[in-house]
Amino acid sequence: MITREELRELASFECRDDRELAISFYFHPSTPQDKSHREEVILAKDLVSKTLRELQINDHSRHATEDLERILRLAENLHGNSARAKAVFACGARDVWQVFDLPPVASSSTRLFVNRRFHLRPMAAVFSEYPRIWIALVDRQSARLLEIQFAQIREINEFTAALSRRGRSDGYAGYNAGHAERHSEDEVRRHYQRAAEFLKQAVERHQFEGLVIGCHDVNWPEFESQLHPYVRKRLLGQFPADLRSLTNDEAKTEADRIRREVLQRHHQELIQEALDGARSKGRGVTGLRRVLRAAELGEVECIIMTPEYSARAVECTNCGHVDSHMVSYCPACGRKTRELSDVCESLVPTAIRNNIGLVLVPPQEELDRVGNIAALLRFRSDRNTNELLAAS
Length: 392
Ligand SMILES: [Zn+2]
Hints:
alpha+beta; Translation, Eukaryotic Peptide Chain Release Factor Subunit 1, Chain A; 13 helices; disordered C terminus
C-alpha cells in the first residue's frame, strides 16, 4: 500500500510540456455477483487499448505508448492473481512507474486517466476511509495489541499480568480466600492500568488514529474507567471478545465493521457541520467557488465531495490560481489561464500537498443542493482584507 509520503510525492508531480503524459490506471476486481473477474480484466485491457489507439493517432510521445503497453501486460497478468485492486502511476518520459495495492474501497471501478497530473482522488480518499487503527484485546489477566493498516493486520505487543502466588491460590484450605480475592482484584486493576498506560503512550507517539477494544462486557466498565481522556477520544468502539479463542483475523473483522459504522456516522456529521457552518458563516463553505477560495486562503481542513464529482474550471499557468469562472486571464496575476476539464485534477493534488483531508461521500440531496462539494474550515480569515477577493 501507499504511504502518505509517496502520495504527496505523486501529488507534486506535474508534466512540463505536451510530450509528457501522466497516466493513472485503477484496477478494481469486481465482486463475483456483479461480473466475473475475467470480464474485469477484459474491460481493463479494452480501456488501455482504446487509449493507446487514440494516443498513436495523435502522434503522442513514445514514452506514453510504452507506459500503456506495460499497463496492458500488467492487466493481462492480473487474472492469475487473487483479485487485489491495484493502482499504477506512470510517466515514462520522467522515469516514473509505480504500482500500489489498494484496499477494498466502496464504489470504485476500473479506470484509466491520461493527463498533466496523476489522478489521485481514489488514493487520497483511502486515507480518510482507512485511519490507522489499533485493536486492544483485554481480559483480566492478559492483553494483546494489534495494528490494522489498510488490509494488513500485525501484532504489536502482548502481556500477561504477573499474578502473585496468593492471587492465584485460594489460600490454605480456603482460610485466606476472601483476602486473596481482594488481592487479585488489585492485580487486575494494575494490569488494566498497565494496558491503559501503554495505550496512552501510543497516542502520545501518534501510533494510531482510532482504537477498537475487544473485551468481555463484564470487564469493560472497569477497564474503560482506567482509560486516559486522550485514549478515550480515539476510541471508535468496543466489542465483546474472549481472548483465548479470538483469532487476529476475527478481531480485524470486528474492527472493520466498527470502523465502517463510525466513519459513516462521522462523514455524515462532517457534511452537517460544513452545511451548518456555511449557513451561519462559521466553519463551513459550500459550492466550488467558495471551496476554491477557502483552499487558496489556507482555511480548509477537509474537502467533502461525491466520488464522481467533476466541474470545469481554469487554472493560471503562472501562479496556479484556480477559478470556477472560465476566464482567459488570471484574476490574481493577469497571466493566461489553462482549461481544466475537471477541477479535481488540480484541487486534489493541492489538497494532498497541503494536508487537507478528502472525504468522498455517497450522493445525497442536501449536498446535491449546494453543488456536491463543501469544505470544513480550520478557521475563517477576514475576507475583506484579502486581495484575492478584491481582484475577483
Ligand atoms: Zn495567476
